[in-house]
Automatic annotation (TrEMBL):
This is TRGC1 protein. It comes from Leiothrix lutea (Red-billed leiothrix). It comes from the Eukaryota. GO terms for cellular component: membrane. The keyword Cytoplasm does not apply. Keywords: Immunoglobulin domain, Membrane, Receptor, Transmembrane, Transmembrane helix.
Length: 169
């Protein structure tokens, strides 16, 4: 498939491709409470091209201090992309509504951190999933931990070989 990508200046990106653009197929917010903080993860999946704007807002004002936007990653099974952004707030703001907004050339949407239809038991309170997505975050963390472990193992093996080389030289 033909694909051309050119970046101008500090952020203007031109993508020329045979594939038609497609809006995100799925978007959701996950919630994790830990000690005195709550982290909301906004996951936006299966869109093309990878150009998307993700922001967090509170009462219409954009939040920049506690928000982090990850880089878009390409799926292993296709040409589409996904992205995650997260917001960390103090636990006392638990009842406050925050919004994850995204703008893609095919769609715009706003997701709320508060959904009235979701109820949790006390055991689930510290790991509530606002939009039930199964173990996606666990799988992403597991895959990342596995890759870090492999990299560290390779790095320590290289150091071992270098030390052996200088010892027996």
């Amino acid at each position: 498939m033909g694909y051309y990508n050119k970046v101008f200046g500090s952020g203007t990106k031109l993508v020329v491709s045979e594939k038609a653009s497609s809006p995100p197929a799925n978007s959701e917010i996950l919630r994790k409470k830990h000690e005195n903080q709550i982290t909301y993860v906004c996951l936006i999946e299966r869109f093309y091209p990878d150009i998307i704007r993700v922001t967090w807002t509170d009462d219409g004002k954009e939040i920049t201090d506690q928000a982090v936007k990850g880089d878009a990653w390409q799926s292993t099974t296709g040409d589409d992309y996904s992205i995650a952004s997260w917001l960390t707030v103090p636990a006392e703001n638990e009842d406050k509504k925050y919004y994850c907004k995204y703008e893609h050339e095919e769609a715009k949407a706003s997701l709320s951190t508060q959904v009235d239809s979701v109820t949790t038991t006390p055991q689930e309170e510290d790991c509530k999933i606002v939009f039930n997505r199964g173990n996606l975050m666990y799988q992403l963390m597991h895959r990342t931990a596995y890759l870090v472990y492999i990299i560290l193992l390779l790095k320590s093996s290289m150091y071992y070989l270098i030390v052996l080389f200088f010892i027996y030289r």
